[in-house]
From TrEMBL:
SUPFAM superfamilies: P-loop containing nucleoside triphosphate hydrolases. Pfam families: ABC_tran (PF00005). InterPro entries: AAA+_ATPase, ABC_transporter-like_ATP-bd, ABC_transporter-like_CS, BCAA_Transport_ATP-bd_LivF, P-loop_NTPase. This is ABC transporter related.
Length: 258
């Protein structure tokens, strides 16, 4: 995607905006986790959200997906106000999240986890769901070999594959991934980033929340830096990756040279 397509002028073309978070505030009781975040994800983009621990990234995506109700602002999905819509209803509309820490069902088999991912569309009954399962298993052959295995007994990387695969089973229009790299070796992170990049090239819109900023910026079109519940920086990833303040604050943990 070119930088022209994500210039401020293109805001006039709202039909392209899939997720539009407008001045979100989100509190846990008296504690304010998100102070004021506005963020747009356009159809076809891969947008990265980076920021330190406790910055409010996960709270923002919980507010966007309906897992926690924002205390202020709006969340538009495909142009409609979904601020008060339940998380389940949003999944049905194509707003799907792979949560931080994966949260797969550890006692269930890999296959059952995939079926649970498709529950909003009635499980694996439809031909479409079966075709999606085939595509997902093609994308992750490791899972295909392990369909009967208890999900919790797989490696961290395999569990993250399953979490993404389960998300894909819900037929997302926008896939939000919170901390892809959590606890994973650099080689696995690289592999999974490659999968996300391929999915995005295939047309899937992705919002990637990621502590390892250099990995996320390497595959994203556009990026937001979140600090203290606000947007501290925003711009094309290539520009942010060269921003001295961003480099100093977030790019200390560099992607190892290939
Ligand atoms: N359920 C909760 N109850 C109370 N406070 C919470 C809750 N969840 C998060 N917070 C607080 O909200 C703030 C933002 O947390 P959040 O998890 O959104 O940050 P984050 O940017 O995702 O951090 P990390 O990089 O560690 O995942 C933190 O101060 C955190 O302690
Ligand atoms: Mg988080």
């Amino acid at each position: 995607m070119t930088t022209q397509e994500i210039s401020p002028d293109s805001d006039s073309n709202d039909a392209d905006v899939l997720l539009d978070i407008q001045s979100m505030e989100l509190r846990y009781g008296a504690a304010v986790a998100v102070r004021d975040i506005s963020l747009k994800v356009k159809r076809g983009q891969l947008v990265a959200v980076i920021g330190n621990n406790g910055a409010g990234k996960s709270s923002m995506v919980k507010g966007a997906t309906g897992l926690v109700a924002p205390s202020g602002g709006k969340v538009l999905f495909r142009g409609a106000d979904t601020t008060r819509m339940s998380a389940n209803a949003k999944v049905g509309q194509g707003l799907v999240m792979v949560p931080e820490g994966r949260l797969i069902f550890p006692d269930q088999s890999v296959e059952d986890n995939l079926i649970l991912g498709a529950y909003v569309h009635g499980g694996l009954k439809s031909a479409k769901a079966k075709a999606t399962r085939e595509k997902v298993l093609e994308l992750f052959p490791r899972l295909k070999e392990r369909l009967g295995q208890q999900a919790g007994s797989m490696s961290g990387g395999e569990q993250q594959m399953l979490a993404i695969a389960r998300g894909l089973m819900a037929e997302p229009e926008l896939l939000i991934i919170d901390e892809l790299s959590l606890g994973l070796a650099p080689k696995i992170v690289d592999q999974l980033m490659g999968v996300l990049s391929a999915l995005n090239n295939d047309g899937l819109t992705i919002l990637l929340v990621e502590q390892l900023a250099s990995y996320a910026l390497a595959i994203a079109d556009h990026a937001y830096v979140i600090a203290n519940g606000r947007v501290a920086r925003e711009g094309p990833s290539q520009v942010l990756a060269r921003d001295p303040e961003v480099m100093e604050a977030f790019l200390g943990r560099k992607k190892p040279a290939a």
